[in-house]
């Protein structure tokens, strides 16, 4: 019934025995402890329990190199304390061969060899390979088969074998160790590497820095995922070519390869590259020769010759990538068209983003290209590209430069130096680097936003009472000329209200209207000198223009109507009125009050019922022309009476 049975017997050596074809093979019971059971065979036992080797309430035994196969119940098992398994019994297994180890009556009675589950070797494959590499009685060439399509490998050979095994490794192959100093290509285009995942689990594939070789090479392979690999020391790190489509490369590091970190070549389309790092290569990430419709997101390509390089590749999407400290950050060449670059960073390169050789119809949005040695964005022989809301600052030569190309456009970019490019509706970029988007570039001076536009050379533009007052008060940026660029309506009170620094400059309304609601002044000056007011249309105020205690004020080509006073000149000297129209003002068109007679000519006005100081244009009485029909006070000009007034003759 028992081949070998020990009962309450300890410290024995059971060696080189054959206990097969019994009810139980080798049976230790009742505290048979501290025995060595070595090199025995216990097969085909088929009694009531049918165990090969059975330890019952026995402790601290060592089972080494035993073979227990084809037993009717279990090959090796423990039963401790009437119901517990081997845990805590001190029984140890080393390099045994079996198929089943102890599951009995719903409880586990396994004796696991050291470092594995169950026996080290299986009965089907014997000692030719460990049990975890045995499948269907065939050794899996030294890669581990974990079941459910999952395998593990630890060398280039075993990984190639596992990746080529669709039967056992059809879903996932995991690299479990670093592979170092590889001579030649490591993962070398396994024929069946399709529709599966290769997960390096953070392990390194390291080449010998010599020869034309690849860390991972695929040709014409699809629907794979390569992830968590560190690939270094090859000519090409990760290389997909010839219609290698719909692959995912994620969380890989491809650094310090002599040519390419990650390379997609010859119509490798619809691939997704996310969270990869490709540093210190000649080319960080390269899409070449009609590699189209790929998505690159959150990748880093630093300290390469070229960070991210698209050559003759279309419809790719680059988002949230970083390409810094390269010669070229992001480089599109040779009809790389219809690509979308969004939220990428290309800093501290020689060129940040470079489009060359008919790379057309690309959209470049929300990218940052700062501190580059030459240009932030450089377009050469490339047309119809769209540049929107990019940040391009502190680039040594220029922030944007377009050299040869047409139809390039954009808006809301931030830069200081642009050549051959203007955002829509402005010169250069909409925003400056100093002020950012707090205000447009034409309103930024020395890092401070002005709510008026600064055009340079002492010229500014304004469009409201407030912005005009600010500009007229700014002698630094607006010391020569302030231009009104829009009508100002429904002003309650005074519009231009005696800005402190409104001296020795020109306020040109450019034909625009300043319209009030019945009170205040359109333009009010006091204690000012050397100014010119021109081309304004002013109505609806208590006084259109009031000049008080000021000197050398020139008012010309102004129309002031429907105010209480058209213009008031109070205690003011050495000023000049020329070619103005002051009509339909209810109290007085021109009110000269104190001061000396101010010269003027070619003005239009009517006599007023109440005019404390009458105005005379040079060489005539009153204005040169009247409001009704451009009538002249000089009767010698013609003999036709005007408006029934014999003192007025028509011009």
Core attributes:
single chain; 651 residues; mainly beta; 5 domains; 13-stranded mixed sheet; eleven-stranded parallel sheet; 2 helices; 72 strands; 3% helix; 40% strand; rod-shaped; disordered C terminus
Structure description:
This protein starts with a strand and ends with a strand. The relative contact order is 0.03. It has 5 domains: 2-134, no CATH class; 145-234 and 245-258 and 273-282, no CATH class; 301-449, no CATH class; 453-618; 621-651, no CATH class. Strands 17-18-19-22-25-28-31-33-35-37-39-41-44 form a 13-stranded mixed beta sheet, covered by helices on one side. The protein has an 11-stranded parallel beta sheet with strand order 21-24-27-30-32-34-36-38-40-43-46. It has 651 residues and is mainly β. The protein is rod-shaped and about 145 Å long. The chain is built from 2 helices and 72 strands.
What does the secondary structure layout of this molecule look like, with pairings?
Blueprint: E1 2-7, E2 13-15, E3 24-29, E4 36-38, E5 53-56, E6 62-64, E7 67-68, E8 76-79, E9 92-94, E10 97-98, E11 103-104, E12 107-108, E13 121-122, E14 126-130, E15 134-135, E16 138-139, E17 144-147, E18 150-153, H1 156-163, E19 172-175, E20 179-182, E21 187-188, E22 197-199, E23 204-207, E24 214-219, E25 225-227, E26 230-232, E27 236-241, E28 248-250, E29 253-255, E30 260-265, E31 272-274, E32 283-288, E33 295-297, E34 306-311, E35 317-319, E36 328-333, E37 340-342, E38 351-356, E39 363-365, E40 375-380, E41 386-388, E42 391-392, E43 398-403, E44 409-411, E45 414-415, E46 418-419, E47 431-432, E48 436-440, E49 444-445, E50 448-449, E51 453-456, E52 459-462, H2 465-473, E53 481-484, E54 488-491, E55 496-497, E56 506-508, E57 513-516, E58 521-526, E59 532-534, E60 537-539, E61 543-548, E62 554-556, E63 559-561, E64 565-570, E65 576-578, E66 581-583, E67 588-593, E68 600-601, E69 604-605, E70 631-632, E71 641-642, E72 645-650
Parallel strand pairs: 1-3, 2-4, 3-5, 4-6, 5-8, 6-9, 7-10, 18-19, 19-22, 20-23, 21-24, 22-25, 23-26, 24-27, 25-28, 26-29, 27-30, 28-31, 30-32, 31-33, 32-34, 33-35, 34-36, 35-37, 36-38, 37-39, 38-40, 39-41, 40-43, 41-44, 42-45, 43-46, 52-53, 53-56, 54-57, 55-58, 56-59, 57-60, 58-61, 59-62, ...
Antiparallel strand pairs: 11-12, 13-14, 15-16, 17-18, 47-48, 49-50, 51-52, 70-72, 71-72
């Amino acid at each position: 019934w028992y081949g070998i049975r020990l009962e309450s017997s300890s410290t024995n050596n059971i060696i080189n025995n054959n206990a097969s074809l019994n009810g139980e093979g080798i049976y230790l019971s009742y505290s048979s402890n501290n025995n060595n059971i070595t090199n025995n065979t216990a097969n085909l036992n088929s009694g009531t329990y049918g165990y090969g080797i059975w330890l019952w309430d026995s402790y601290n035994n060592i089972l080494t190199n035993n073979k227990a196969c084809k037993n009717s119940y279990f090959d090796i098992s423990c039963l401790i304390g009437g119901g517990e398994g081997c845990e805590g019994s001190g029984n140890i297994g080393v390099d045994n061969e079996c198929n089943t180890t102890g599951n009995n009556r719903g409880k586990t009675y396994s004796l696991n060899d050291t470092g594995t589950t169950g026996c080290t070797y299986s009965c089907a494959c014997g000692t030719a390979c460990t049990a975890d590499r045995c499948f269907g009685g065939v050794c899996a060439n030294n890669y581990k088969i974990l079941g459910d399509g999952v395998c593990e490998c630890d060398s280039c050979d075993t990984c190639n074998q596992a990746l080529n095994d669709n039967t056992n490794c059809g879903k996932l192959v995991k690299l479990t160790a670093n592979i170092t100093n590889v001579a030649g290509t490591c993962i070398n285009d396994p024929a069946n590497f399709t529709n599966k995942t290769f997960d390096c689990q953070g392990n390194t594939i390291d080449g010998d820095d010599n020869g034309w070789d690849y860390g991972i090479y695929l040709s014409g392979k699809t629907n794979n995922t390569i992830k968590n690999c560190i690939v270094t020391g090859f000519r090409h790190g990760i290389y997909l070519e010839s219609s290698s489509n719909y692959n995912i490369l994620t969380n890989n590091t491809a650094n310090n390869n002599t040519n390419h970190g990650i390379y997609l070549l010859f119509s490798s389309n619809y691939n997704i590259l996310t969270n990869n790092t490709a540093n210190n290569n000649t080319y960080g990430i390269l899409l070449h020769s009609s590699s189209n419709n790929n998505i690159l997101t959150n990748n880093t390509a630093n300290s390469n010759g070229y960070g991210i390089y698209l050559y003759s590749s279309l419809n790719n999407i680059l988002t949230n990538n970083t390409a810094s400290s390269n010669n070229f950050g992001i480089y599109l060449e040779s009809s790389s068209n219809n690509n979308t670059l969004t939220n990428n960073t290309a800093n501290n390169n020689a060129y940040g983003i470079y489009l060359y050789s008919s790379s057309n119809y690309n959209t470049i949005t929300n990218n940052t290209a700062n501190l580059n040695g030459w240009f932030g964005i450089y377009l050469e022989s490339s047309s119809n590209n769209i540049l929107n809301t990019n940040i391009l600052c502190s680039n040594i030569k220029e922030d944007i430069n377009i050299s040869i190309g047409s139809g390039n456009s954009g808006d809301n970019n931030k830069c200081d130096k642009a050549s051959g490019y203007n955002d829509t509706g402005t010169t250069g970029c909409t925003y400056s680097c100093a002020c950012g988007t707090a205000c447009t570039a034409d309103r930024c001076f020395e890092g401070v936003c002005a709510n008026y536009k600064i055009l340079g050379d002492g010229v500014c533009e304004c469009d409201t009472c407030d912005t005009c007052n600010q500009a007229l008060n700014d002698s630094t940026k607006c010391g020569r000329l302030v231009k009104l660029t829009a009508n100002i309506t429904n002003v309650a009170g005074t519009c231009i209200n005696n800005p402190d620094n409104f001296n020795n400059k020109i306020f040109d309304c450019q034909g625009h209207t300043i319209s009030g609601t019945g009170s205040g002044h359109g333009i009010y000056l006091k204690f000012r000198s050397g100014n010119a007011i021109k081309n304004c249309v002013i109505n609806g105020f208590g006084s259109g223009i009031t000049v008080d205690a000021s000197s050398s004020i020139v008012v010309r080509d102004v129309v002031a109507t429907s105010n209480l006073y058209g213009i008031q000149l109070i205690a003011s000297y050495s000023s000049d009125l020329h070619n103005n129209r002051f009509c339909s003002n209810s109290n007085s068109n021109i009110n000269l009050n104190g001061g000396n007679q101010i010269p003027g000519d070619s003005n239009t006005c009517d006599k007023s019922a109440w005019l404390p100081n009458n105005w005379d244009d040079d060489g005539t009485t009153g204005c040169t022309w009247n409001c009704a029909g451009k009538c002249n006070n000089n009767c010698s000009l013609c003999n036709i009476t005007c408006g029934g007034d014999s003192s007025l003759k028509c011009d």
